[in-house]
Amino acid sequence: MSNLALKGARIIDPTSGVDAIGNVYVKDGVMLREPGAGGDWVTYDCRGLVLCPAFIDLHCHLREPGFENKETIATGTAAAAAGGFGSVCAMPNTRPAYDSVENAVRAEEEHSADQMVHVYRFAAVTTGRQGRELVDIDSLAEYGVVGFSDDGDYVWNAVVMRDALLKAKPHGLPVIDHAQDGELVAGGVMHEGDVSRRLGVPGMPSEAEELAVARDIALARLTGGRVHIAHVTTARALEMIRTARVEGLHVTAEVTPHHLMLTDEDVVKIDKEGREAFNPDAKVNPPLRTKADTAALQSGLMEGTIDAIATDHAPHTEADKSGSPREVAFGISAFETALGVALSLCHDGKLTLERVVEALTIGPMRVLTGHGPTAGLVEGEPAEFVLFDPNSIWTVDTAAFVSKGHNTPLAGRTLRGRVLATFVDGSAACWRDDIESRLVQGA
Description:
Layout lengths: L3 E10 L4 E10 L2 E3 L9 E4 L4 E4 L1 E6 L12 H10 L2 E6 L10 H11 L6 E6 L13 H7 L3 E3 L8 H11 L5 E4 L4 H4 L4 E2 L2 H6 L3 E2 L1 H18 L2 E4 L5 H13 L3 E5 L1 H5 L6 E3 L5 E3 L12 H13 L4 E2 L28 H10 L5 H8 L1 H6 L17 E11 L18 E11 L2 E5 L12
């Protein structure tokens, strides 16, 4: 693109503590705070917009290799850029699983050219994500993974989880567990409670998550290792995390946009006969919980007990989301709605803009303990930032998604707050036509 002058934006950079109205220039892909001498500039009036470091997603599913019908590296990272993410951390539930250096090298060689944003990898905790045999943590850490997770499956063997924490500890890497006792939720399709009983579908009790969180906190205490609680959903699990942090344990946590906004009532839809029915697009693992849980998560994010907002982007085909409640796949396509959900909650007074930016930038960076992307606006370095309109009102149209996955219960909803541009490594990975109305003629 041409050399750009983005003028009058609210610049928020949690890393440096900057929060002020100002200008940002991009010259030959490099970010500048002053234009310097020479150069032809294309100028945009960015008053009312926010410019901050490109977002970091701690938790997503890019599906490739093995499930290219659901998503590819190319489509997934393009969708991430459309959502404001400059860096994403991919989970290892691919085929083959990301459980060895050999598989890691093959994946990098085959797919790195397709990346629209930076892709970091979590390796599996166990071979094949089966929960039995620990992967070679030392070699994978040396290769450059940012942590370990069997996400989608609970590491049911406490000895294996203990050993993973001990092995990862010298490398300073976190171990993520899909904190949910698999036996307790087997066959369940949504939160176990009044709504599941009303719909007559099997439930997934909150206690399944709480038992797993309690075990992992105990193992963090035993080992001194770093436990990261993925997609926390219940108020009681949050309270355990809060207590662990007060104790000084290395326990961090993330929350998804959908668990911040939606509840188990959103799993209900009205069918053609006017009766209540199960909404397959709202089937997600862990499930959407109660209004009280959602309120607790919002408070936990605001106070800092929850470190980061992570999408858990999980794209599926239309066929994946068809069938009986038991047959339908778990997951929501979340890259492109994440900011809109978070900012809609800001406009409702549930969150603040400053905290949302922190939770999408410096929060995930700290969870990764210096092994992943940085989150800051750095003068003289390739441009890595997102420009968004916090007041843009738009309706979620899944047909316009960049992702292959159109599976979201937010379809047709009105959100407030939208990404206009995302710069990654000095180039515009996303540039919406909307921003052209802000072009300053003759500047």
